[in-house]
Amino acid sequence: MDPSTIMVYVLAYLATMGIVFLMLLPGIISLVLLVLVDGAIQLMILILRLAALGLFRSAKALTGRLIEKFRRPGNTGRLAHH
Asked: Are 58 and 65 spatial neighbours (Cβ–Cβ below 8 Å)?
């Protein structure tokens, strides 16, 4: 084989690789976008879970303080008379 034939085969091989890549490009882009959207959704879920945990802890502390206030000695648990 002469060098020009080998060069034609190399160029045809590279062109075929490029065409296959271009054919698969929409699928690759779709997969990348799905991965990015999934990551964004997971990040939002994490933020919402942390916010809910913070709200739960603050509500627990508030109710705990109120319960302790009513359990202090000398407190009958009744409303004050006017």
From this structure: no
Residue entry with tokens 């959207």: 37
Sign of torsion, CA 24 26 31 36? positive
CA of 23: how far to CAs of 29, 32, 36, in Å?
11, 16, 22
Q: Which stretches within the chain are classed as H helix?
A: 3-70
Structure tokens at 25: 């490009």
Instruction: Identify whether the C-beta of residue 70 lies closer than 8 Å to the C-beta of residue 77.
Output: yes
Confidence of residue 65 (pLDDT cuts 50, 70, 90): confident
Report, as an integer, the average pLDDT of 5-30.
96
Spatial distance between the Cα atoms of 44 and 61, rounded to a whole number of angstroms: 26
> Considering the entire predicted model, what is its pTM?
0.57
